[in-house]
Design goal:
Organism: Enterococcus rotai
Keywords: Competence, Membrane, Transmembrane, Transmembrane helix
Order of helices and strands: EEHEEEEEEEE
Protein name: N-terminal cleavage protein
Subcellular location: Cell surface
InterPro entries: ComGF (IPR016977), N_methyl_site (IPR012902)
Distance between the termini: 90 Å
Strand content: 35-45%
Number of strands: 10
Length: 157
């Protein structure tokens, strides 16, 4: 677009002023408003994605608890350490433990391990009387906790 000049006469002197036309100003406002709309839409989308990820972590936690109960069904409870639960398999009398290792909670048995929960920042196992408290913080700072009750079936006599 061609720049237009505005000439003013004052005391018989000419001054030249450069400026934007009305169409150029309207076009700039249109571009600015589109950028603002896209920015606000991306912020709203980020909030939705964050809440869905949190819900996904809660589902993974519930599945982990169910799977943990299934995995230790044929085991007797021995003891708890800060990062692991030690059990004994009733079928072959070998040690089995559930531990936090390399960002995962895994079941270790016969030299191999099976991941039960991934993307774990911190996991703490605490024995408190008749139950074991499992506290997990995921990498996205979602916190989850559960109590695993030690019944007569699980307790090593």
């Amino acid at each position: 677009m061609e720049k237009r000049a505005l000439y003013l006469r004052k005391n018989n002197k000419q001054h030249k002023f450069s400026g934007f036309t009305l169409i150029e100003c309207l076009l700039a406002l249109l571009v600015l408003s589109i950028i603002c709309l896209l920015f606000s839409a991306s912020i709203k989308n980020a909030v939705v994605v964050t809440s869905r990820l949190k819900n996904e972590r809660e589902k993974e936690w519930q599945i982990f608890i169910i799977q943990l109960e299934s995995e230790v069904k044929s085991c007797h409870y021995e003891k708890t350490q800060s990062n692991k639960i030690i059990l004994t398999n009733t079928k072959n009398n070998k040690k089995v433990w559930i531990e936090h290792k390399l960002g995962k909670i895994v079941k270790v048995e016969n030299g191999g391990y099976q991941p039960l929960l991934t993307e774990v920042k911190q996991a703490i196992f605490k024995e408190k009387g008749k139950y074991v408290m499992i506290e997990v913080t995921f990498e996205n700072d979602v916190y989850a906790a559960a109590k695993w009750i030690i019944t007569g079936d699980h307790k090593h006599e």
